[in-house]
Amino acid sequence: MSDFIWETFDGLFKTVHRQTKQVEQLEQRVTELERRLSERDSEHNGSAVTNIKRATNEAAFPTERAA
């Protein structure tokens, strides 16, 4: 009976350890992607983001056009 408990504990420990490594790898990947995105935005001077924000604001707050 105690062998079963130790095997179960060992299996759980290994699973948690493996998942922790996977989470760390995913966090590193997200950080890398965020860095690349910010670099790309700075290269384009945020023009694409500005255009999206402008289009969103115009849709949310339509302006009256002068006749």
Tell me about this structure.
With 67 residues, this protein is an all-alpha fold. The chain is 84% helix and 0% strand. It is built from two helices and no strands. The longest helix has 42 residues. It starts with a helix and ends in a 7-residue tail after the last helix. 0% of the residues are buried. The mean pLDDT is 80.
Key attributes of the depicted protein:
67 residues, 2 helices, mainly alpha, single chain, rod-shaped, 0% strand
Which stretches of 5+ consecutive residues score pLDDT under 50? none
What percentage of residues falls in helices of 4 or more residues? over 70%
**Biggest sheet character:** none
Q: List SSEs in N-to-C order.
A: HH
Question: What would the principal axes of the Cα set say about the shape?
Answer: rod-shaped
Task: Determine the strand fraction and express it as a percent band.
Answer: under 5%
Tally the helices: what do you get?
A: 2
Mean pLDDT: 80
Distance from N terminus to C terminus (CA atoms, Å) equals 87 Å
Give the class from helix and strand content and strand pairing: mainly alpha
* Total beta strand runs: 0
